[in-house]
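Worked example
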Amino acid sequence: MKEVDKIAFIEIKDGQILSTRSKGKSKYYIPGGKRELGETDEETLIREILEELDVHIKQDTIKYVGTFKAQSDGEKEGVLVKMTCYKAEYDGALKPKSEIEEIKWLNYKDLNIVSEVDKKIFKFFKENDELK
C-alpha cells in the first residue's frame, strides 16, 4: 500500500484549528506538506510553513502531536496519506503565500469541508477538548 508522507503544523486558538485552502481547491487542509529528500520532520515543517504562511517556526518549540493516516484525497483507492503533526511557536503574522489562497480557522462542525486525514485530526483534538 502506498503512503504519501506529509508533515503538518497544528495551531489551535480559541477552540479553532488553523486550516488553509490552496488555489483551485474546495477543501481545506491543515498547513504543511511533503518532505524533500533528506529533510527531517522539523526541517520540512519549518520550510513548508514559511512557504505557505510566511511565518518562521521557532525550532526549539516544536512538539510532536501525533501521526494520522487516511485515504488520500484525489488519489486512487488504497493510497494513504500519513500526516505527522507538530505544534510550535512562530514569529510573524500568518498570511497566505505561494499556492495558498485562503487561511481559515475551523472547528469541529466544519468536518464536511476538510480532507479525510484532517477529519481524524479534528476528532483527536475534539476528544482532547481542544477543538470546539
Observations:
- Strands lie at 3-10, 12-13, 16-22, 32-34, 56-57, 63-71, 80-87, 90-91, 100-106.
- The mean pLDDT is 96.
- The two ends are 34 Å apart (CA to CA).
- The chain has one domain: 3-127.
